[in-house]
Amino acid sequence: MSKMTPEQFHGVRQRMDLIADQAAVERAFDDMAQAIEQRYADKDPLLLCVVTGGIVTAGLLLPRLDIQLRLDYVHASRYRGATSGGELHWRHRPSEAIQGEHVLVVDDIFDEGCTMAAIVDACVADGAASVQSVVLARKERAHATDYRPDIIGLTVPDRYVMGYGLDYKNYFRNAAGIYAAADEDV
Ligand SMILES: O=P(O)(O)OC[C@H]1O[C@H](OP(=O)(O)OP(=O)(O)O)[C@H](O)[C@@H]1O
Ligand SMILES: Nc1nc2[nH]cnc2c(=O)[nH]1
């Protein structure tokens, strides 16, 4: 995994713009959790975290959910440390575990939408009883698919965003807010 120098890291941090502060993001998580509880109270869903970016979203949702549920993960990535997407690479697809389940796919962002659409299609192909999705953020842009997530925390501008699990060149996933990279850094 490639590294940034401290000078590069601090430069990106100084230039980035705040999109949603910690309080706004935490409120979005409360709303997402409420929507999930309403849909899945009696369904014993299988939450499917999309690694890596979805880890923080799943981790902040789980303790807010007071319902019977289980957790598994898929690992599918298009960006792989870059700021524009490419082909989807599957690294973990738990096909057998998905058969007959009410699956809720959990990810950090719906941008072009290709990643989520492909994961949802894969779950259907693997025999899920139902498949819905939740994302922390949806980008305000035209998407490359007709598929839309069922539950969306925040809408963010069409800029490269980071924080709360979203990376910039593998860094900033731990930022406690959602930030947009400056044009010169994208
Ligand atoms: O809507 P799309 O344009 O398809 O992009 C969304 C995907 O991009 C990011 O993953 P990425 O491929 O960067 O991998 P990561 O989870 O390791 O960050 C993000 O976590 C979503 O899964
Ligand atoms: N970190 C990050 N990952 C993405 N994947 C697709 N779009 C984005 C984005 O704006 N930021």
Describe the structure in brief.
The protein is α/β, with parallel strands linked by helices and 186 residues long.
What would you note in describing this structure?
The chain is α/β, with parallel strands linked by helices. It has one domain (21-78, 85-180): Rossmann fold. The chain has five helices and nine strands. The strands form two sheets. It has a six-stranded mixed sheet, sandwiched between helices. Strands 1-9-8 form a three-stranded antiparallel sheet. β5 (102-110), α5 (114-125) and β6 form a beta-alpha-beta unit. The mean pLDDT is 95. 1-O-pyrophosphono-5-O-phosphono-alpha-D-ribofuranose binds next to β5 and α5. GO terms for molecular function: guanine phosphoribosyltransferase activity; hypoxanthine phosphoribosyltransferase activity; magnesium ion binding. It is an enzyme of class 2 (transferase). Keywords: Glycosyltransferase, Transferase.
Helix/strand layout:
Elements: H1 6-15, E1 17-20, H2 22-40, E2 46-51, H3 54-61, E3 70-77, E4 89-92, H4 95-98, E5 102-110, H5 114-125, E6 130-139, E7 151-156, E8 161-162, E9 178-180
Parallel strand pairs: 2-3, 2-5, 5-6, 6-7
Antiparallel strand pairs: 1-9, 3-4, 8-9
Bound molecules: 1-O-pyrophosphono-5-O-phosphono-alpha-D-ribofuranose and guanine.
The site of guanine has 8 residues, from strand 8.
GO molecular function, one term: guanine phosphoribosyltransferase activity
InterPro entries: HGPRT (IPR050408), PRTase-like (IPR029057), PRTase_dom (IPR000836)
Protein name: Hypoxanthine-guanine phosphoribosyltransferase
